[in-house]
Amino acid sequence: MRTPEFFYFDLGKVLLDFDHARMLRQMAEAAGVPVEVVRLALMPSGDPAAGDPQYLLEAGHLSEDEYYAGLCDRLGGEPVRADIDLAASDIFSPMDDSLRLLERLRAAGRRLGLLSNTNPIHWRYFTDGRYPWLNESFEVLLGSFQVGAMKPDPAVYAAAVDRSGTPAERVFFVDDKPENVEGALACGLDAVLFRGAADLERELAARGAF
Question: Fewer CB within 10 Å, N side or C side of the chain?
């Protein structure tokens, strides 16, 4: 098995854990409405392909202004935007075992990238300095909203390969969702499903990554 030339990591549930239920609770508190009102306003179907506002924002098909205006309309009020943004974003916690693997790759001189389905509100929260390793570790930081598509859309992997400057078959990718791994494999990347840090360590070691 050849050693990849570039290593992409998904962010949520691979490097940072998160809690959507907490997001909805906090946004509801900030807006002064029941949790179910916020859920129906943002992700009524829970399906990224169904056109829910939360996923349209992640796909880059809604601007932040459009997202906030639509939320206000559906909530029937205008909560403080900064409070809503913080409530939506303060839901993450580092996955230390995964971060130790990331540091080992970095120490080995590996080229690293982040490839995440995310939105610009969360992106600012990630990159504002509260997670120094995020800004320091990755040569490429690529969010779905910047591409205009979400994994497993082939456009996302094409953008990631292009940004890496490396042939697809020499790009490694790890994600916690089977459909995203399958999408990467279909685009020619070397991709594996995240089943925990110990399993990922074995996958990386098998490829001579460290």
Answer: N
